[in-house]
Design brief:
The protein is an all-alpha fold. It is 45% helix and 0% strand.
Length: 117
């Protein structure tokens, strides 16, 4: 796919000011990235709002799920421990806090979940 004029301009700016720096572009063979809507920061802010979720910041859980959906909207959860750690919940209460935030997201209608087989 040919580059647009805006893409060309941004590449020229990068070359002029940051020549020789390696820029993350999300292009292959890069791995471990995901596409996100521009509204994601606003959604995460909402999920931190005490008026909306009380003292239960669920933004980290939503971001962790969103980053693993692989453009399908489905997250195959293998380890609650791994997911809770990636969302920032560590220690003895990490998994329990993760599960509480998952339930909150489901109750608020942000996610739907099913137990796998």
């Amino acid at each position: 796919m040919p580059k647009t004029a805006a893409q060309e301009r941004r590449e020229q700016i990068r070359e002029e000011y940051w020549s020789g720096e390696i820029a993350w572009t999300g292009e292959k063979p890069e791995k471990g990235w995901f596409r996100a809507p521009r509204t994601l920061p606003l959604l995460l802010l909402l999920l931190k709002s005490k008026k909306f979720v009380g003292n239960s910041d669920a933004g980290g859980v939503y971001l962790e799920l969103f980053s693993r959906h692989r453009d399908t909207g489905i997250v195959d959860m293998v380890s609650s421990g791994e997911h809770s750690y990636a969302a920032g919940y560590v220690g003895t209460r990490g998994v329990r806090t993760w599960q509480e935030r998952m339930k909150l997201l489901e109750n608020l209608g942000f996610i739907k979940s099913k137990l796998g087989s």
